[in-house]
Amino acid sequence: MNAKQLAAEAAVALIKDGMKVGLGTGSTAYFAIQKIGQRVKDEGLKVTCIATSVQSEELATSLNIPMAGFEELSYLDITIDGADEADHSLQLIKGGGGALLREKIIAYMTGHYVIIADDSKYVETLGKFFLPVEVIPFGWQRTFDHLSRLGCTPHLREKQGAAYITDNGNYILDCDFKKITDPGQLQTELNLIPGVVECGLFVDRAQTLIIAAADGQLTTYHKEVKN
Ligand SMILES: O=C[C@H](O)[C@H](O)[C@H](O)COP(=O)(O)O
């Protein structure tokens, strides 16, 4: 079993009958959704889920995982999601797969927010991974200018030669800050820029971080966070 799958399955073991569950996005969350589907099928696990992306919604539906909308769910017991970077105080960079906005909305309605990753994602200081910032397409070049003034080099994310479009119809600027020493302050500054919809910093959100190594070793970190 690879490290991502190992971390994912350890997290899915936390899900109990009757829980409302948030489904993350990406190659690590994929294994969690697969395992939830397996538990629904084999054990008759009773859950109601909401997904952080169209991609995860489609995967969950194909596995017959019961899904619900925001009109039905206002609170989730647990969400299991991946991350692009996580530091020792469980601050995160997310959005490598473009799902940061829906992921953050769901993180903010979750009681127990669990992050799963292989050990390459566990870093001393955030920022080596370019920080994804979701911006509206209107005037994005000027939003780009404002981001640059915060000391980063932004790059418009592209897919097949055109601007990458998120599930919400927006663009992503991947920002090279090199080192992010104060994620909370940076999040505040980013979200004050007109045109920025949301940034991929998840500050004081994760309560549990499950890191798996290729040799099968699992390490779980916990933090007190009032969600
Ligand atoms: O937008 C995508 C999400 O934030 C992912 O959870 C993150 O990019 C990690 O993805 P992966 O597990 O594929 O490395």
UniProtKB/TrEMBL annotation:
Pathway membership: Carbohydrate degradation; pentose phosphate pathway; D-ribose 5-phosphate from D-ribulose 5-phosphate (non-oxidative stage): step 1/1
Q: List GO terms (cellular component aspect).
A: cytosol
GO BP annotations of the record are: D-ribose metabolic process; pentose-phosphate shunt, non-oxidative branch
Q: Which InterPro entries does the UniProt record give?
A: NagB/RpiA_transferase-like (IPR037171), Ribose5P_isomerase_typA_subgr (IPR020672), Ribose5P_isomerase_type_A (IPR004788)
Name the UniProt key words of this record, in alphabetical order: Isomerase
The question of whether Nuclease is a record keyword is answered with no
Classification via Pfam families: Rib_5-P_isom_A (PF06026)
Reactions the enzyme catalyzes: aldehydo-D-ribose 5-phosphate = D-ribulose 5-phosphate
Domain of life, per UniProt, equals Bacteria
**Does this entry carry the keyword Protein transport?**
no
Primary enzyme class: isomerase
| EC number(s) given by UniProt | 5.3.1.6
A GO molecular function assigned to this protein is:
ribose-5-phosphate isomerase activity
Catalytic residues at 103
Residues given in the record as substrate binding sites: 25-28, 81-84, 94-97, 121
| Quaternary structure annotation from Swiss-Prot or TrEMBL | Homodimer.
Q: What protein family is recorded?
A: Belongs to the ribose 5-phosphate isomerase family.
**Function according to Swiss-Prot or TrEMBL:** Catalyzes the reversible conversion of ribose-5-phosphate to ribulose 5-phosphate.
How is this protein named in the record? Ribose-5-phosphate isomerase A
